[in-house]
């Protein structure tokens, strides 16, 4: 695929704000000509591929914006697979904005979010899972997340998928051969080979699915939402947890701690704690809006902690809140247990943890409870993955099981082959190789049946 036909995109590649270095990146067929013009036009020496050139950067009317290093990566040996030029100036927001504006005035288009990686995928520089790993790496909030995303980017996940995909196509070719030949031609071993292959591949996909589930959990992090009446101690509990678990260390603009939200590291994985009552307070001006937001947040929670006051026991108002909670894992938290000798009776069918946000007693039990409910046992996934990948692997496993069932009862070979084809197609969705030619190619190259 030749993406050089498309337009040339430009973006400031470094984060907003002041810094030592600021980079403007261009990609597309006109990247070189636009960058050359920005660097003073034909008067300057031409850019040598992959060499660092010291250059001044100019406006169209000849004013110097900044100076720095220019790097030229000719297609296809660049991040995007297109011609890429990077202008590395100083990390001045104003100079970078001018450079960007000049590039646009000279015919480049402001890149959409992720467009460089999207082009890298379209040009075959990264497969889909790797392109997604770029985003996961950028957004990683913990060491474990960053390591897993880097492994995915290096292709750990894609290679595992591709390896199974290849075996699946081979098995499909075997099954297809059965469609064209009678059993006498192929011999007894043929059916046995298919049966063995189905068992083998089913195990491999199941294992990869488990790893992908871990990877997806890891990439997503956790979200725990606190609900409860005023004054039961939700804010105190959030603070106590933030103090106990190591708080997130990366300083990211716009995520300063506030009353409503804390981020903690649980077994090295980031977990967001949100106080819905706080949301409601924040939405006081438009109460309905605040309640709608709280409801939305509750639905997105992986675990809900319904905090209640152990010193007064279960109240009618607690019951109202409980009945209003969406389906999903939850715990009743008996806070202020320091005020009573034993926690009060818990509503039937509910799991409770008694603790004191004030003294810290019972926080260990809550910690265990969180790890269990969020599935964060510390056996982090070997690579990062997403819901999309998990679903594709689930589909693939379903189809494999169907093929196995059909085959074991001597079912119609066409249907076995069809299920295998679907299983392979589902796997291919992970890396974005969704080409039916694959399967045909595999069949033709391995079986010179000459029919
Ligand atoms: P929220 O409205 O649910 O966020 O409750 P707060 O966290 O603001 O706490 C309400 C009151 O309960 C404050 O006076 C806290 O000091 C007190 N409180 C919170 N947790 C405990 C606890 O574990 N034990 C005791 N004795 N008091 C607590
Ligand atoms: Zn509060």
Automatic annotation (TrEMBL):
Sites where the protein binds (6S)-5-formyl-5,6,7,8-tetrahydrofolate: 25, 86, 125, 451
Free-text remark on how the cofactor is bound: Binds 1 potassium ion per subunit.
GO biological process terms held by the UniProt record: tRNA methylation; tRNA wobble uridine modification
Molecular functions (GO terms): GTP binding; GTPase activity; metal ion binding
Chain positions recorded as GTP binding sites: 231-236, 250-256, 275-278
Catalytic class of the enzyme: hydrolase
Highest taxon of the lineage: Bacteria
Compartment list: Cytoplasm
Known EC number: 3.6.-.-
SUPFAM superfamilies: P-loop containing nucleoside triphosphate hydrolases, TrmE connector domain
Alphabetical keyword list: Cytoplasm, GTP-binding, Hydrolase, Magnesium, Metal-binding, Nucleotide-binding, Potassium, tRNA processing
InterPro entries listed in its UniProt record: G_TrmE, GTP-bd, GTP-bd_TrmE_N, GTPase_MnmE, MnmE_dom2, MnmE_helical, P-loop_NTPase, Small_GTP-bd
Any one of the GO CC terms: cytosol
Residues annotated as domain TrmE-type G: 221-375
Protein name, as recorded: tRNA modification GTPase MnmE
Cofactor requirement: K(+)
Pfam families (UniProt xref): MMR_HSR1, MnmE_helical, TrmE_N
Principal place of residence: cytoplasm
Chain positions recorded as K(+) binding sites: 231, 250, 252, 255
